[in-house]
Amino acid sequence: MRLSKRIDQQETDQNLLNNGNELSIAKTILHHMKESAILFNQKGNILFVNSTTKHEFADYWAQGRNLFQLMDTKSTAWLRSCVNIKKESEYLLKIQRDGKEDLLIEFSFVPLHFQDIFMLILKKGTAFDYAEQETIAHVFDKSVHGLIITNKFHKIVKANRFAEKLFQLHSQQDKDSFDLVKLIDQHVHSINTKRFKQQQGMYRPERLSISVIAFNDGYYEVSRAESIYQDYDLYVIRDVTGIVSILNQVDRNDTLKVVGQLAAGIAHEIRNPMTSLKGFIQLLEAALKNEHSMYFNVITSELQRIESIMTEFLMLAKPKDSKTIRFNLYDIIHDSVELMKPQAVMHDIELNMLSSSENAFIKGDPNRLKQVVINLIKNGIEAIEEKGIIQINIEQHQEQVVVLIRDNGCGISEDKLGKLNEPFYTTKEHGTGLGLPVSFKIIEEHGGYVDVKSTEGEGTEFSLTFPLDAD
């Protein structure tokens, strides 16, 4: 009796499927779907399976079988709940197989809203398949480079942690209002990207554009692969601050090389006539009358200026030999401050020195480092137009000593800060543009480095860092 009733029910279900126009449409849709799909009724009886289902699952989900009997308890409870509330839902089923990797089936429930017929879309995979997808998501999110995907309206669809932190994309609202194309245009840097671009290997997107932006005290290479998928673009943001710094150093070294070649060629030709001129001027000094003394002083001053320029010129090109000794940097700073105090007082400038310790021993040439400190103090004095302060602090941090020279002068604009180490670049009316490059070079020769911070109208701070000598 039960068997006869079951057969009658299956025949009724099949008649509904064959005769109903809406069901026929659903059947046609399933037939053309690439995904595995099943039509079933409220009691769980399978009414139709498409060819993909037969191919992927053989006869397991065969027409005439009952879904509630083919699924485990939890899956059945989920499916019954979906049937009752008639709302789209998803569920992941894990099936254990003897001697094989567990099978994972992702179910998507879709109510069709007619004659209590429902559709179940199946996606088969293994734990590795789903783990692979999760791995890809983690790789994207935790990549060492910034990754951003945008749509055809240039709106962010997805961004990883690097990009979110760099551009402060803390919320969805931040992402919706963020215009990456506009930011690139505003912060683009003029450096030639061909000098440091990575090799693309065998694969290179057809529509790839590369630019460098100066952003948040760093430099970033932004590569845009257009239409990486349909109308979506992929942006890869790479931190190239270190590379740009190296390239700038290479450029400076190239300039110094040219300077060295020039210096070697002209130093002899200039210094010989200068020696003769100075000698004859000194002979003429006794014969000069008082009304001509002003001209004599001007000539002598300009000759000294030429000699000073030549000295800096030669020092920049080829540093003079010096003996390396162990000395107390505190003493050098103190002596330089005392030497420059009279000049500071003449300009109504307060020159102060503060140190956390009177012992800061390093190795190098004390005379050349004194030249650096005097030059920086002199620059600070010239930068202060009226009454001001120059503060010098000496701080020790583990194995380093830091000298901070801070003034409250006119400051330096951001576009000029990056040029301070370029030979012959100067903002002074009578400057040579060699003082700071020479100072920076001396500091580098002592194993140190320089950091400059400045704000126009507020002042400038030079931070000199040297390695301490533990001996």
Total count of strands:
17
In whole angstroms, the N-to-C terminal distance is 103 Å
- The CATH homologous superfamily of the largest domain is called Histidine kinase-like ATPase, C-terminal domain
Lateral strand order in the biggest sheet = 2-1-5-4-3
Mean pLDDT: 80
Q: What global shape is seen?
A: elongated
Largest sheet: 5 strands, antiparallel
Give the number of helices: 15
Q: What share of the residues does DSSP label as strand, in percent?
A: 25-35%
What is the CATH architecture descriptor of the largest domain? Answer: 2-Layer Sandwich
Category by helix and strand content = alpha+beta
The oligomeric state is single chain
The unreliable regions are 1-13
| Portion in helices | 40-55%
Radius of gyration based on Cα positions = 39 Å
Counted up, domains total 4
The CATH class assignment of the largest domain is Alpha Beta
Descriptive notes:
The protein has 471 residues and is an alpha+beta fold. The protein folds into four domains: 2-126, Beta-Lactamase; 142-239, PAS domain (Beta-Lactamase); 245-317, Helix Hairpins; 325-467, Histidine kinase-like ATPase, C-terminal domain (Heat Shock Protein 90, 2-Layer Sandwich). The protein is built from 15 helices and 17 strands. Strands 2-1-5-4-3 form a five-stranded antiparallel β-sheet, with helices on both faces. It has a five-stranded antiparallel β-sheet with strand order 7-6-10-9-8, with helices on both faces. Strands 12-14-15-17-16 form a five-stranded mixed β-sheet, covered by helices on one side. α1 packs across α2 (21-32), α10 runs antiparallel to α11 and α13 (366-383) runs antiparallel to α15 (435-445). It starts with a helix and ends with a strand. The model is unreliable at 1-13 (pLDDT under 50).
